Amino acid sequence: MVRFASALFALSAASCAVDAAGPELALDAPPLSEAWTVSTSASVALWDSGRNVDLSSWMNVHCNLDYGDGYLLTGINVNQEDIAESDEFVARMAGECWEFDLTNSELPKTREFEGKVIFEADRFRTGVFQLEVPDYTYPIGLDLNVSGNDAYVKDVRIAYAPLNGNDSALDLGSDSVTSWAFGYGGDLHSLRCPDQSVMTGLALRYDVDAGKIRTLKIHCRELQP
Hints:
Number of domains: 2
Oligomer: single chain
Helix content: 10-25%
CATH architecture of the largest domain: Aligned Prism
């Protein structure tokens, strides 16, 4: 009888040991692996008017640094100059940062979104023009229409590209652009990310007296499968 009781005790103790190990195993489980990563090092493409009078400090949005690794600069909202102005120009700009699911090979958007005002002139029209890349495409740069004397930004549009058929790289041969925000004419300056890189932010300096963008640069980071 003593031997039988001891055996039952041993079995019970072994069962308890297995149950106790369960939570520890769960805590040590590895996180979901990422199908994509966004490089921690950035590259820059710059347009500069060369005009340095009355400039603001750098005004920016850095989606991945401000909000997280999966955030890209997918949208830009802009306002026109005040109706009393004789020149046509971007007088206010805000950035839209959407998060993408880096654990999914198809790289879809999540439900997470952040917006940030980058700059605004003292006066501007209240109507907002919104630019946004389509779903399952990724921002790769900006086009600027600038004034004939290369002095300020008149209009803007976003360049974007989808993934290739294998979901293994950007298909830069299928790149496209959004419409222009306002439809203002000007001299075209294209700012593009390097091959297989996406736009994660931008920075600009504007004339605090005239309210015009004088310098603008995009920030790009490599998208790695």
